[in-house]
Design brief:
The chain has 18 helices and 20 strands. It is α/β, with parallel strands linked by helices. The structure holds flavin-adenine dinucleotide (FAD). Flavin-adenine dinucleotide binds next to helix 1, strand 15, helix 16 and helix 18. The site of flavin-adenine dinucleotide has 37 residues, from helix 1, strand 15, helix 16 and helix 18.
């Protein structure tokens, strides 16, 4: 192995994962971060005695975090602990139906068959098929580079290709779910998983029905201290093994010469490096950091995944009917996604997600109060009149929640902060404020994500939610792994 110096642009979850892996292999790794803090989208804030996780709230596949501690040879229990949730999420429908989704699949099937028009066996068969799709495709689509010949020569890929017809890539997720279930509430329930990668269930392919496996087969978890502990513990681990962070240091350019990386430019300084990994969104990486390199137009012009509008509310009451994760479905799901992806607006009846970490972490809100992270899916920032959209959406959300929960919610809000797609774009430099990079609204989307390496500039690599395999914490952790694996393999050859 060569003693390379590696610079990583950005300390998002994928950047830190790649850094920890490469440092553990003996490389000299430094991270340059524009913000004063690590974690990018995975951050938090405290105000008026409330603590809020600002970005991700759903934690699945903790084994991917565990791997990083194991690789770095540090005991995870000294840094990060978490517990499994027995209830995944509470669902509220416009017709008055309430459904609390148990984490155990047999209990789930039993409970769903009581609430919805469905046999237990139909649910269990559906979940078995979700798991099968995941097992068949994870090594091709998630755990290895889609853009390296070696991936296609593996036994697993061959198996996936032989089972192509079972993957339901030729129909959209909603049509697939409609072939299995009759009850529109259950179809809406399973259509919701398209939002886990910021896509529309009416366009994303049926193969995305593998997503429920992540939470229904592997479980959902809550990190002690909240989601921000993921960032904090990885940052501490990285520092403990000798990775240097440079905060408040925006990288202005990745310097290349004759198709080879030379280093980075930040302010007036040039910092040489053998390898550069960009954890910044792939669109600004090309547009701002690599102005001299030819950008892959087709890849960069792909439709972006959805963004979000979030109201962080301090609520002066506790709600026994609510849990850590709560969904209040819209009456017309199709119209909601048409608004987001076609009209670039938020519908008047959006599905509302409330995350309440004080249900698990009592000190996240004052006594007798709760911290509500109240989120609706939103279009990306294309210059809409966000101030007007925020005012109207706030009215619509409060009206909906007040009606369903039988309270005057306006009277209960004693703290408010708002995050909209413009803020997400500004704080994390994600193109148009999208949450997961490109959307997966076509069956070719996975293949159109940018590879984890540059094919025109040597020693230039990428990781994070906007490149392969995509956004969301587990996918970003895989992205960091794929990038580190490719670098290590090529340094040995
Ligand atoms: C509101 C919200 C809710 C979400 N919910 C979930 C969820 O429940 N579950 C889930 O799994 N995922 C969720 N996600 C998605 C998840 O947060 C992301 O997929 C993941 O955190 C992205 O990590 P990343 O490594 O791509 O980097 P990012 O978090 O995008 O960070 C990139 C970093 O690079 C830095 N940077 C960019 N340009 C430069 C530059 N020129 N110089 C220096 N630094 C630079 C940025 O400042 C930033 O810190 C959510 C995201 C948001 C915003």
């Amino acid at each position: 192995m060569k003693n390379y110096k590696i610079i990583i642009v950005g300390s998002g979850i994928a950047g830190m994962a790649a850094a920890i892996r490469l440092k553990s292999l003996g490389y000299n790794v430094e991270i340059f971060e524009a913000n004063s803090y690590a974690g990018g989208k995975l951050t938090a804030f405290k105000s008026n005695d409330y603590r809020f996780d600002m970005g991700p709230s759903l934690f699945t596949m903790p084994n991917l975090i565990e791997d990083l501690f194991e690789i770095a040879n540090k005991p995870i229990e000294n840094y990060f602990t978490y517990k499994r949730k027995s209830v995944i999420c509470n669902y509220f429908y416009e017709d008055g139906t309430k459904f609390s989704a148990p984490s155990d699949i047999y209990e789930f099937a039993k409970s769903a068959s009581v609430t919805f028009d469905v046999e237990e066996k139909t649910i269990l068969d559906y979940l078995y098929n979700c798991q099968k799709k995941y097992d068949l495709t994870s090594s091709l689509f998630l755990e290895n580079s889609l853009h390296k010949i070696s991936t296609y020569l593996s036994k697993n890929t061959l198996k996936a290709l032989l089972n192509l017809t079972k993957l339901d890539i030729n129909k959209n997720l909603s049509d697939y779910n409609s072939t299995i279930f009759k009850d529109p509430r259950l179809i809406q329930f399973y259509n919701r998983f398209a939002t886990y990668n910021g896509s529309s269930p009416y366009h994303t392919p049926g193969i995305m029905s593998m997503i429920p496996s992540l939470e229904q087969s592997f479980g959902t978890y809550f990190p002690k201290g909240g989601m921000h502990q993921i960032t904090k513990s990885l940052e501490k681990l990285a520092k403990d093994i000798g990775i240097q962070f440079h905060f408040n240091t925006k990288v202005d350019e990745i310097i290349t010469k004759r198709s080879k990386v030379l280093g980075i430019k930040t302010g007036k300084s040039f910092i040489p490096s053998d390898i550069v990994i960009s954890n910044a969104d792939i669109v600004p990486t090309y547009k701002k950091l690599l102005p001299q390199e030819k950008a892959p137009k087709k890849i960069l012009s792909q439709e972006r995944s959805s963004s979000a509008l979030i109201f962080y509310w301090g609520i002066t009451k506790t709600f026994p009917d609510l849990d850590l994760h709560n969904i209040f479905f819209s009456a017309d799901y199709k119209n909601e996604f048409k608004s987001i992806f076609q009209d670039q607006l938020i519908s008047d009846d959006p599905t509302v997600y409330i995350n309440i970490s004080s249900k698990e972490e009592r000190t996240d809100a004052p006594e007798g109060c709760e911290n509500w992270f109240t989120m609706v899916n939103a279009p990306t920032n294309n210059g809409q009149d966000w101030d007007a959209i925020i005012i109207q959406t706030r009215i619509n959300i409060i009206k909906k929640l007040s009606r369903v929960l039988k309270v005057d919610l306006n009277q209960l809000i004693n703290f408010e902060s708002v995050l909209d797609p413009r803020d997400i774009e500004k704080k994390t430099q994600s193109y148009q404020g999208s949450l997961y990079g490109a959307a997966s609204n076509s069956k070719f989307s996975a293949f159109l994500r940018h590879p984890n390496f540059s094919s025109s500039v040597s020693n230039l690599y990428f990781c994070g939610g906007s490149v392969h395999p995509g956004g969301g914490i587990p996918l970003c952790l895989w992205s960091g792994k794929i990038t580190a694996d490719i670098i290590h393999k090529s340094s040995k050859s």
